[in-house]
């Protein structure tokens, strides 16, 4: 009768994986087993290690290292919450998402190089000491927007404006990905309290990732423009600034100001405020309908112009926070059409390049399935859904 072989996992490795992993997902029995492994009272089998690896959401191979490593993605060194640098370790959901996007970026970079394409000259083209007006104008040029782009069609609606700006960014060569979960695992939801978006800088394949779990739509739109500004500045960043009024780092203040100006130019705001009638709340609602921004953004601009008081601004923020909490409680189902959801997550131009690479024999179907999170059937169906 064959018996399972115990494996000696050093206690320092067990301590490390517990520290970086999602320890809350372990049962009391599993924690007790790990204590026995640490003391040497018993040894884990390969099956035991695989189970703990899955529960902690750390790579299986980590248990076989001789020494702990720092697997924190470099972009996490640029994390801001409320525009403050933080030391809290990133979640495995964030780490895995960053590494998945980095792998896509590496593929896209090599694909452009293999085709003898030039790097994008707009990446890092703007100096960090530029003023917000200069950065805003640079964004308009790269995205090929006029100053009043939000007046076209339904672009004053944040959802519509997001699609519009995302398309312009992708046309410029910036990869834009969006999801509210880790890979295809609907049980691993991304936490907007940890991050809203991030930007990964590369002169051949600049990439922006938007956390779909962030609400409302105007928040995702602001995050998109904020991260596009970082692309032009040439700085990686992981973003979770919950209030554009509290930015403390110069770069964050610059990106916030440029994003706000792109979405709601100051002169247009002042004209709209003056033309609106009624009290402050009525004016905020009226102005909000003209620009793809949140109530809080309108209220903050009004506060800066001293059109409203601090108390009125705080009241708007409170109502917005309550609304977001209500939306979060309602949006508990993954729901929706699989292919529509899948299509919204992926950069369509990057998908076209992957398909072309497969057709040319440079990328295997297996690799294409891995990068797109599909299989033989769903990959072909996805292509049908995104064809223009």
TrEMBL record:
Signal peptide: none annotated. InterPro entries: IrrE_HExxH, Rad_response_metalloprotease. It comes from the Bacteria. Residues 170-301 form the IrrE N-terminal-like domain. PANTHER family: ANTITOXIN HIGA1, BLL0069 PROTEIN. This is IrrE N-terminal-like domain-containing protein. The lineage of its organism: Bacteria, Bacillati, Actinomycetota, Actinomycetes, Bifidobacteriales.
């Amino acid at each position: 009768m064959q018996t399972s072989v115990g494996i000696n996992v050093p206690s320092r490795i067990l301590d490390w994986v517990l520290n970086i992993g999602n320890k809350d997902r372990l049962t009391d029995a599993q924690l007790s087993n790990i204590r026995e492994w640490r003391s040497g009272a018993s040894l884990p089998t390969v099956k035991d290690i695989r189970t703990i690896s899955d529960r902690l959401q750390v790579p299986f191979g980590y248990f076989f290292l001789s020494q702990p490593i720092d697997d924190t993605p470099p972009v996490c060194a640029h994390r801001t919450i409320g525009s403050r640098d933080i030391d809290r370790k990133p979640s495995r959901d964030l780490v895995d998402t960053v590494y998945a996007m980095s792998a896509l970026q590496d593929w896209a970079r090599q694909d452009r190089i293999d085709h003898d394409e030039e790097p994008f000259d707009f990446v890092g083209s703007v100096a960090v000491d530029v003023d917000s007006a200069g950065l805003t104008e640079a964004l308009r040029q790269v995205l090929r927007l006029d100053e009043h782009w939000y007046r076209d069609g339904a672009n004053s609606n944040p959802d519509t404006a997001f699609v519009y700006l995302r398309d312009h960014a992708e046309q410029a060569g910036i990869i834009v990905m969006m999801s509210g979960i880790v890979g295809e695992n609907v049980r691993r939801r991304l936490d907007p309290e940890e991050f809203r978006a991030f930007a990964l800088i590369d002169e051949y394949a600049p990439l922006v990732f938007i956390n779909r779990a962030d609400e409302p739509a105007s928040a995702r739109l602001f995050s998109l423009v904020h991260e596009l500004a970082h692309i032009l500045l040439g700085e990686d960043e992981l973003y979770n600034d919950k209030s554009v009024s509290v930015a403390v780092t110069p770069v964050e203040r610059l990106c916030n100001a440029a994003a706000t100006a792109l979405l709601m130019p100051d002169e247009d705001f002042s004209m709209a405020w003056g033309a609106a009638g009624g009290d402050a709340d009525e004016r905020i609602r009226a102005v909000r309908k003209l620009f793809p921004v949140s109530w809080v953004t309108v209220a903050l601009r009004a506060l800066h112009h001293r059109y409203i008081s601090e108390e009125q601004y705080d009241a708007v923020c409170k109502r917005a926070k309550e609304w977001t909490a209500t939306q979060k409680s309602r949006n508990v189902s993954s729901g929706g059409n699989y292919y529509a959801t899948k299509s919204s997550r992926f950069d369509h131009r990057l998908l076209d390049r992957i398909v072309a690479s497969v057709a040319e024999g440079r990328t295997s179907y297996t690799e294409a399935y891995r990068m797109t999170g599909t299989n033989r059937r769903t990959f072909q169906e996805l292509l049908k859904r995104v064809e223009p």
